[in-house]
């Protein structure tokens, strides 16, 4: 008998009394650990930035990355609009907005890869030096999280099209939204620390 | 609904199962296997150190044995076995049917065996030689085993993070009606504090290990000194996790002790709220003290003093706990069963560890004793004398609940006697060897330390011998021990209000907790003892 | 009843303090106090030991007393008294440890401030750690040796660094250690006050030879020190001395220099074998090349990459030539 | 089944307005960077604007403003811890 105790609402009475949903709580706790994970990578980057003075030689293409940041901000906007749409039961609009999010995500990744290629041409590679290592690892892991987010969006899109996600059951969209917005927040911090602050 | 004593088939322990009780036992038994492996490596270390020269193991092999002893004992024994206790007991103690994310729970267990295999495999691929601390640049060079080692520790870290998310969410969401936070058993408080630390500290180690792995495999320059890499950065990333890790390993153990004392003294826990708040205080302070491991390193000398202050302040909540435990057993009716004996052993041995911790926090003394056998003695008194004694106490205390059978008291007491003598004999001489000038992690030492090391090796032999009665007792009693009652110790916490072993859904229906979980003893004047909380 | 408990606790209290004081003063668990720093650190250590002994005996005594006195008597299964807490007691055992910690913290800070300040006009000694040997450089005499000599009573500042991995320079008798971190210089100040030979040990895991990475500090009178310094300078060009100073003996066997290192190949048979190792390369060139670029030719059965590759910085070509000649014409 | 009892939806500016705010802030930051404003001023402005953007996304897009304070704590406390660790790691 595979033990799959059906979870009823009354199991979570203590949490609901505090105004908490167990899936959102799980997501926020996961975000807490992700904050610390990126914290480790950012601390390494900033340690070297302020002890070795980055980037010594190359000047980063701030305008291109600025546009890339706008793309990611837009994708946050489309995700939160998609959530409103599904809650109003407008399946079509939900699917369209989620598709737009996926495209914006891919656009961001392309912009990122373009910038990486440009840096590689200038000789700044993952193994070229301390700047290359910490920069590419930090932005690389953020890009990885965006890619995972895009895949997750595609899965959510199919679940929406299949009808499992609707006006009543849409917590999965909100959870995906939390993840996506968190990745967007990480990018805002990275954009400021790497590209803007000199 | 299945009957309470469903036919327990052994097979379900070897396959994906989302019942928190099965996962709890899986964690405990798997980690015990790694405990024995780590113990065997400790035996090798002590055998080598019985004589001053490197006769049994040469320098490199000794470093591998010592490194894997430390890593196995921390990441594959103490952390998983405490996660096992947490998994088995938290749902039962808060009156829930299971953890809030059962599948995530099974996943975090099933990351342990592959990580363990990876760690063992690293041994044969020219194993990790840089100690469990894996300081760079030493851990950047060296044989490929070090990379497997780093991947294994990353996997174990991620498993611990998933576990922490599960524990915190379960305790917040699924407490039984009437179970306010001030009525939670103190073991649950210990797990809350531990899970907070795991959640916030482990990811930083994971990011550090990624940097080491990239440096080793891809050739990045995080820690390459010639191109500007900074070895002290790794020490920061490592110790930011690894000091909270020692509190992660002691807080649940303290929780177990707080559960055992009131039951066997038949007296309420003394200062419940102070103990609960001390757990949280230790957790929060624990996140601010990491650089006391780096007093002698290349860090900026002016920055050391704040770490000394915060490290010493942690002695206050720890002291509150020890004095509260003493006050709990004072004037009680002590039943000296095996769990109680181990709990008493915990206090006396953890005390030695705690006091020597203050020596290490004082910078001038630390500059002499850092990285010496004084530190080795301190950490073993806190971890072996502390956490492992508490784990043994917990294993005996909850043995009837988990297996439905009673363990043999006489064998349990011999196990305690051997363990207590062995621990003190093995680690007390190390204090003096360290003070007199014996550095840490050495395969050979100056002849003047021979006697201390020989006493320590004798103690280690006794410890090795002490695990045999435990194994015999555990296996035999689980198979053929006398049937245990639902509540053999007349305890008041919720896990004892259901059958032993509990049915898959834990409680016929979710109980309502009314009383305080430690409402033992007769209130004076001698009125009728407070009724146990109405079970359902 | 009140007076009795007060009386007993007074007796117990005095007994504990006395025991703590006795242990603190009598316990002799430290190496000799061979530097001003050692005196200050030992004083702090003794205070910590005394306070810890008092607390240790208090808690262990209470534990043993409780186990004996409050054990359940057979047949008496009444529970204990329902005491949940005692606020004043709890406040007491929070404030007293806090007070002790503050006192210890302040005192530790004072001792730290005292021992970290170098004496007036300290002699600078550069300490260079590398896998499995120590080297000491005296900038004033442009001299490098593998044995540290110091004049008694004169303050010294060690500027400690490493060439490969992290080591840790530790002199137990001076009560201090400082990590030798590659890529940075760490300072350590002290003043030796006792004449004698004291061991130097590496306290940070640095690889296979961590345990044998030891040397000695010889604290001697100022005259002996100056004589030693002059003699060392004269020997700077003596190849046998170079062989010792560079720490080759830590890894190689050379009977004529009485070294027993086993990490690298033995050099005793070098005169006969050197000329044959590399086709077309003479014995002298082979030896010199092996010193400057050790990994070019690795004797079978020995690990590559362990021998330092920095001799070209530390030895003049003339010294390398003299060293190679010395290794080739052993008696 | 909306499990969590959220507080009544206070007068929240529409997502569009917030998006506009984010875009404008980013545009200003880009302007500051392109015009090469000198560090002490530019760094202060960058930190202010990025903090504002993070707060906007977290409070409105992630509903922290209307949800239980527990979620805010789960996000803000680790962020503060990270700030302490980052500052100390740079210093050491």
Question: What is this entry, summarized?
Answer:
With 536 residues, chain B is mainly α.
Describe this structure as you would to a colleague.
The complex is a heterotetramer of chains A (198), B (536), C (331) and D (92). Chain A is 77% helix and 0% strand. With 198 residues, chain A is mainly α. Chain A has a domain at 81-198: Up-down Bundle (Four Helix Bundle (Hemerythrin (Met), subunit A)), CATH 1.20.120.80. Chain B is built from 15 helices and no strands. Chain B has helices at 20-48, 59-93, 102-110, 112-124, 145-173, 186-217, 231-265, 272-286, 304-313, 315-329, 338-361, 363-369, 373-403, 409-436, 450-480. Chain B is an all-alpha fold and 536 residues long. Chain B has one domain: Cytochrome C Oxidase, Chain A, CATH 1.20.210.10. The longest helix of chain B has 35 residues, at 59-93. Chain C has 331 residues and is α+β, with helices and mostly antiparallel strands. Chain C has three domains: 2-66 and 87-116; 123-234, Immunoglobulin-like, CATH 2.60.40; 239-328, Cytochrome c-like domain (Cytochrome Bc1 Complex, Chain D, domain 2, Orthogonal Bundle). In chain C, the strands form three sheets. Chain C has a five-stranded mixed sheet with strand order 3-2-1-5-8. In chain C, strands 4-10-9-6-7 form a five-stranded mixed sheet, covered by helices on one side. A two-stranded antiparallel sheet of chain C has the order 11-12. The radius of gyration of chain C is 29 Å and the shape is elongated. The interface between B and C is large, with 99 and 79 residues.
Q: Tell me the radius of gyration of chain A.
A: 20 Å
**DSSP, total strands of chain A:** 0
Q: What is the global morphology of chain D?
A: flat
Element string of chain D (H = helix, E = strand): HHH
End-to-end gap of chain A: 61 Å
How far the N terminus sits from the C terminus of chain D, by CA atoms, comes to 50 Å
Describe the largest sheet of chain D: none
Alpha plus pi helix count of chain A:
6
Give the topology.
The complex is a heterotetramer of chains A (about 200), B (about 525), C (about 325) and D (about 90).
Chain A: H1 13-17, H2 22-53, H3 62-87, H4 91-121, H5 130-162, H6 171-196
Chain B: H1 20-48, H2 59-93, H3 102-110, H4 112-124, H5 145-173, H6 186-217, H7 231-265, H8 272-286, H9 304-313, H10 315-329, H11 338-361, H12 363-369, H13 373-403, H14 409-436, H15 450-480
Helix pairs in contact in B: 1-2, 1-3, 1-15, 2-4, 2-5, 2-7, 2-13, 3-5, 4-5, 5-6, 6-7, 6-8, 7-8, 7-10, 7-11, 7-13, 8-10, 10-11, 11-13, 11-14, 13-14, 14-15
Chain C: H1 2-26, H2 36-69, H3 87-116, E1 123-130, E2 133-138, E3 143-145, E4 148-151, E5 156-162, E6 167-171, E7 176-180, E8 186-190, E9 196-202, E10 214-220, H4 222-235, H5 239-245, E11 253-254, E12 259-260, H6 270-277, H7 283-292, H8 311-314, H9 317-328
Parallel strand pairs in C: 1-5, 4-10
Antiparallel strand pairs in C: 1-2, 2-3, 5-8, 6-7, 6-9, 9-10, 11-12
């Amino acid at each position: 008998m595979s033990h799959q105790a059906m979870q009823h609402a009354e199991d979570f009475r203590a949490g609901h009394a505090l105004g908490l949903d167990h899936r959102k709580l799980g997501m926020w706790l996961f975000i807490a650990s992700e904050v610390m994970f990126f914290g480790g990578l950012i601390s390494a980057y900033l340690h070297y930035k302020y002890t070795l003075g980055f980037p010594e030689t190359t000047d980063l293409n701030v305008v291109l990355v600025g546009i890339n940041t706008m793309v990611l901000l837009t994708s946050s906007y489309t995700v939160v609009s998609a959530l409103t749409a599904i809650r109003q039961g407008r399946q079509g609009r939900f699917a369209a907005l989620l598709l737009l999010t996926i495209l914006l995500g891919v656009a961001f990744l392309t912009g990122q890869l373009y910038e990486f290629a440009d840096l590689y041409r200038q000789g700044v590679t993952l193994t070229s030096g301390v700047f290359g290592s910490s920069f590419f690892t930090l932005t690389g892991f953020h890009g990885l999280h965006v890619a995972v987010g895009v895949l997750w969006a595609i899965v959510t899109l199919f679940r929406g099209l299949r009808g499992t996600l609707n006006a009543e059951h849409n917590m999965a969209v909100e959870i995906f939204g939390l993840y996506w917005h968190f990745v967007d927040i990480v990018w805002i911090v990275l954009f400021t620390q790497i590209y803007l602050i000199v | 609904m299945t009957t309470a004593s469903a036919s327990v088939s052994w097979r379900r322990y070897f396959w994906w199962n989302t019942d928190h009780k099965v996962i709890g036992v899986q964690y405990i038994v798997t980690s015990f296997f790694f405990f024995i492996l780590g113990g065997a490596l400790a035996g090798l270390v002590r055998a080598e150190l019985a004589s001053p020269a490197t006769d049994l193991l040469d320098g490199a092999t000794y470093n591998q044995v010592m490194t894997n002893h430390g890593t196995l004992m921390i990441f594959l024994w103490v952390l998983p076995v405490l996660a096992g206790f947490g998994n088995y007991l938290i749902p039962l103690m808060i009156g829930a049917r299971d953890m809030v994310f059962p599948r995530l729970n099974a996943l975090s267990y099933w990351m342990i065996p592959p990580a363990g295999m990876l760690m063992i495999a690293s041994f044969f691929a020219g194993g990790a030689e840089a100690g469990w601390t894996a300081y760079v640049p030493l851990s950047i060079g060296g044989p490929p085993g070090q990379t497997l080692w780093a991947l294994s520790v990353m996997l174990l870290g991620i498993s611990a993070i998933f576990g922490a998310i599960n524990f915190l969410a379960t305790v917040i969401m699924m407490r039984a009606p009437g179970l306010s936070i001030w009525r939670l058993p103190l073991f649950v408080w210990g797990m809350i504090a531990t899970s907070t630390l795991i959640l916030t500290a482990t990811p930083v180690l994971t990011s550090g290990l990624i940097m080491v792995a990239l440096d080793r495999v891809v050739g990045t320059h995080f820690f390459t000194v010639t191109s500007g890499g900074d070895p002290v950065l790794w020490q920061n990333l490592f110790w930011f996790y690894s000091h909270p890790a020692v509190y992660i390993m002691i807080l649940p153990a303290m929780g177990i002790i707080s559960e055992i004392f009131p039951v066997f003294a038949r007296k309420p826990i003394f200062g419940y709220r102070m103990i609960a708040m001390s757990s949280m205080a230790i957790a929060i302070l624990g996140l601010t003290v990491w650089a006391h491991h780096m007093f002698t390193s290349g860090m900026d000398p002016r920055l050391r003093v704040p770490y000394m202050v915060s490290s010493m302040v942690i002695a206050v909540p720890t002291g509150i706990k020890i004095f509260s435990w003493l006050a709990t057993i004072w004037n009680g009716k002590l039943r000296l069963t095996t769990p109680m004996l181990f709990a008493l052993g915990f206090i006396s041995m953890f005390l030695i560890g705690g006091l020597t911790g203050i020596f290490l926090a004082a910078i001038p003394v630390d500059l002499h004793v850092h990285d010496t056998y004084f530190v080795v003695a301190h950490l073993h008194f806190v971890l072996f004398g502390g956490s492992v004694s508490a784990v043994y106490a917990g294993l005996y205390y909850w043995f009837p609940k988990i297996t439905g059978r009673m363990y043999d008291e006489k064998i349990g007491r011999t196990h305690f006697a051997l363990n207590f003598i062995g621990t003190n004999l093995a680690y007390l001489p190390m204090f003096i060897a360290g003070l007199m000038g014996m550095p840490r992690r050495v395969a050979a030492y100056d002849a003047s330390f021979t006697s201390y090391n020989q006493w320590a090796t004798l103690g280690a032999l006794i410890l090795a011998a002490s695990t045999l009665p435990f194994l015999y007792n555990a296996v035999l009693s689980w198979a053929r021990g006398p049937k245990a009652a639902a509540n053999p110790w007349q305890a008041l916490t919720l896990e004892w209000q259901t059958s032993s072993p509990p049915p898959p859904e834990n409680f016929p229906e979710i109980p309502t907790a009314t009383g305080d979980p430690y409402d033992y003893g007769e209130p004076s004047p001698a009125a009728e003892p407070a009724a146990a909380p109405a079970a359902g | 009843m009140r007076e009795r408990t007060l009386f007993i606790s007074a007796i117990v209290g005095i007994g504990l303090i006395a025991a703590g004081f006795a242990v603190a003063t009598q316990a002799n668990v430290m190496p000799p106090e061979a530097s001003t720093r050692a005196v200050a650190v030992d004083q702090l250590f003794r205070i910590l030991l005394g306070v810890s002994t008092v607390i240790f005996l208090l808690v262990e005594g209470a534990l043993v007393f409780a186990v004996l006195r409050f054990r359940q008597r057979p047949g008496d299964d009444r529970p204990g008294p329902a005491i949940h807490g005692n606020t004043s007691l709890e406040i007491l055992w929070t404030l007293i440890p806090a007070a002790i910690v503050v006192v210890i913290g302040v005192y530790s800070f004072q001792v730290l401030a005292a021992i970290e300040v170098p004496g007036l006009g300290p002699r600078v000694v550069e300490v260079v750690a590398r896998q499995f040997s120590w080297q000491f450089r005296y900038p004033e005499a442009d001299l490098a040796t593998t044995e540290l000599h110091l004049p008694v009573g004169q303050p010294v500042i060690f500027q400690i660094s490493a060439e490969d991995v992290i080591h840790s320079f530790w002199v137990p008798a001076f009560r201090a250690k400082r990590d030798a971190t590659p890529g940075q210089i760490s300072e350590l100040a002290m003043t030796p006050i006792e004449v004698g030979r004291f061991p130097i040990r590496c306290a940070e895991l640095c690889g296979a030879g961590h345990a044998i990475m030891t040397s000695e500090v010889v604290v001697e009178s100022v005259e002996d020190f100056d004589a030693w310094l002059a003699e060392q300078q004269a020997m700077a060009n003596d190849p046998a001395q170079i062989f010792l100073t560079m720490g080759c003996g830590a890894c190689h066997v050379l009977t004529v220099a009485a070294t027993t290192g086993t990490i690298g190949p033995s050099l005793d048979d070098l005169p006969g074998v050197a000329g044959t190792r590399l086709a077309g390369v003479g014995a002298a060139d082979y030896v010199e090349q092996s010193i400057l670029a050790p990994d070019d030719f690795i004797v079978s059965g020995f690990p590559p990459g362990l021998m330092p590759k920095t001799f070209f910085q530390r030895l003049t070509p003339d010294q390398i030539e003299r060293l190679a000649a010395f290794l080739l014409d052993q008696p | 089944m909306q499990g969590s009892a959220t507080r009544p939806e206070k007068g929240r500016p529409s997502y569009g307005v917030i998006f506009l705010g984010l875009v404008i802030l980013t545009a200003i930051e880009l302007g500051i960077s392109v015009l090469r404003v000198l560090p002490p001023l530019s760094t202060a402005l960058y930190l202010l604007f990025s903090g504002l953007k993070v707060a906007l996304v977290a409070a409105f897009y992630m509903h922290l403003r209307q949800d239980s304070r527990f979620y805010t704590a789960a996000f803000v406390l680790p962020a503060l811890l990270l700030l302490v660790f980052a500052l100390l790691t740079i210093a050491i």
